[in-house]
Write a structure and sequence with these properties.
By secondary structure, the chain is of the alpha+beta class. It is about 40% helix and about 25% strand. The protein is built from 4 helices and 6 strands. A 6-stranded antiparallel sheet has the order 1-2-3-4-6-5. A hairpin with a 2-residue loop joins strand 2 and strand 3.
């Protein structure tokens, strides 16, 4: 099980990430662009993914991953915090950040974390 606070910490540990309340939820952003979101009292969060990754996740673990409301048509995935593997969520949050962050920032991040 992952708590919302742990999820938020994963996201905020990424370069230039920030938290901003929007629509009665907490959005996690990089340079003002949302890459993940959720409500502290909710049992799930939503992360940005590609439509291909979304299809794979939903097929592999339908109890954990589902089509996100409103933004699911763009590849976003809803993740149940009580069932997701913490390492898998960390990878999903990092990939969501990578999809959203400017290319230069991603290159700098990769350079620091390679090897």
């Amino acid at each position: 099980m992952v708590t919302f606070d742990e999820f938020r910490a994963m996201a905020l540990a990424l370069p230039e990430s920030a938290q901003e309340p929007t629509w009665d939820i907490e959005t996690l952003r990089v340079r003002h662009k949302i890459f993940a979101m959720g409500a502290p009292e909710g049992g799930s969060v939503t992360v940005k993914a590609s439509p291909e990754d979304q299809a794979e996740l939903l097929a592999a673990e339908p109890a954990v991953f589902s089509f996100a409301p409103y933004v699911g048509r763009h590849g976003w995935v809803r993740v149940r915090l009580d069932l997701v593997d913490p390492e898998e969520l960390h990878d999903l949050v990092t990939e969501a950040w990578r999809r959203t962050a400017p290319k230069r920032l991603v290159r700098e991040f990769d350079a620091r974390h390679s090897g």
